[in-house]
Amino acid sequence: MCVLLCPGEPRRLADAAGVPLEKVTVAVAFPPRDSTFRSGVIAIRFDGLDAKRSPVDVRLKAGGHTYSPSAAPDLAPVTKPLKIGSQTVTWVTWPPFYQPEQGEYLTSNGDVLFIVVGTPLDKAGKVPDDVRAMVAALPQG
After folding, report:
1. Would residue 90 count as lying in a domain?
2. Which residues, 6 or more positions from 68, have their beta carbon under 8 angstroms from its beta carbon?
3. Number of folded domains in the chain?
4. Ramachandran region of residue 18, left (φ > 0), alpha (ψ -120 to 50) or beta?
5. What range does the domain containing 126 cover?
6. Residue 4 belongs to some domain of the structure
7. Is the overall model pTM greater than 0.90, yes or no?
8. 32-84 per-position pLDDT tens digit
9. From CA 91, how far away is CA 116, in angstroms rounded?
10. What is the per-residue pLDDT for 73?
11. Does residue 3 belong to any structural domain of this protein?
């Protein structure tokens, strides 16, 4: 059962990053259930990640909460690059169902991956205000 990370997900991320599992650190920030703010973040640090590698690319290689590349190697995530303020963000939906409700906004700073969760893009491709606020609050490189 998945809570914030699914079983095996930290190992997949460490392997994709090329760092030992003990060098992966996870932090989370989510609003209280009764909050009107509808976005949260999972920050994953890959201590020792090659500076030429992007933590977003690590996530795409490792797969998401609902998808492991080894389970469906012929299926790839669908990504859409976005600009939120000055931050470059990748909207991703994962196979096999590509459900927007399971999508993630990915961005990074140095060796830290930020998985921003929240309401998906609307039909016009607009990023919800809560997600914009969360991305704006993240450290920028």
Report:
1. yes
2. 8, 12
3. 1
4. left
5. 9-137
6. no
7. yes
8. 999 999 999 999 999 999 999 999 999 999 998 878 888 888 999 999 999 99
9. 9
10. 85
11. no
